[in-house]
Each structure stands twice: as C-alpha cells, then as structure tokens.
C-alpha cells in the first residue's frame, strides 16, 4: 500500500518535518541534475544521440515537458 494513504495519520509536526526534509532532498537532487545537464551541454553529448539541441535531448530523450527542459537549461 502506498505511503500516501498513511499521510492523514501523521501529526502536523511530523508532516511538516517530513515535508521540509523532502524539499531539502529535492533541492539537492535538482542541483545534481543541473550539473549533469551542464556537462551534457559542455560535451555536446546530445549530438551523439541524434538530437540537434540540448532542449530536444531533454524533452524527447529524457521526457521533460518543454517548460521544464527550458528552465533546467536556463539554470
């Protein structure tokens, strides 16, 4: 059973603490993703996969929505 079904049983303090911890983890992971994207761009690795741009690589190969791909490139 999914953890989602048990969230309603958590106290406000625990739910708040969990959310803070998840947001911190999300930021750390996003930082790693952006560093990886930067390295892919530096190597122009997307060309070896047949994509003419980093944007196309991220949106088509990696499955990002167009806006999400562009925000990561801009970062």
What does this structure look like?
This protein is an all-alpha fold. 65% of the residues lie in helices and 0% in strands. The chain has three helices and no strands. The radius of gyration is 17 Å and the shape is elongated. The model has no long low-confidence stretch (mean pLDDT 95).
Order of helices and strands: HHH
Count the E strands: 0
Q: Distance between termini?
A: 37 Å
Main β sheet profile: none
The percent of residues in helical segments reads 55-70%
List keywords for this structure.
75 residues, mainly alpha, 65% helix, elongated
Question: How does the SSE layout of this entry go?
Answer:
Layout: H1 12-43, H2 54-61, H3 66-74
Helix pairs in contact: 2-3
Quick structural summary:
The protein has helices at 12-43, 54-61, 66-74.
């Amino acid at each position: 059973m999914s953890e989602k079904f048990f969230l309603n049983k958590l106290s406000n303090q625990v739910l708040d603490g969990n959310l803070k911890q998840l947001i911190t983890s999300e930021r750390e992971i996003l930082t790693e993703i952006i560093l990886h994207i930067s390295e892919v761009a530096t190597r122009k690795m997307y060309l070896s996969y047949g994509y003419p741009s980093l944007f196309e690589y991220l949106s088509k190969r990696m499955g990002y929505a167009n806006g999400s791909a562009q925000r990561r490139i801009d970062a």
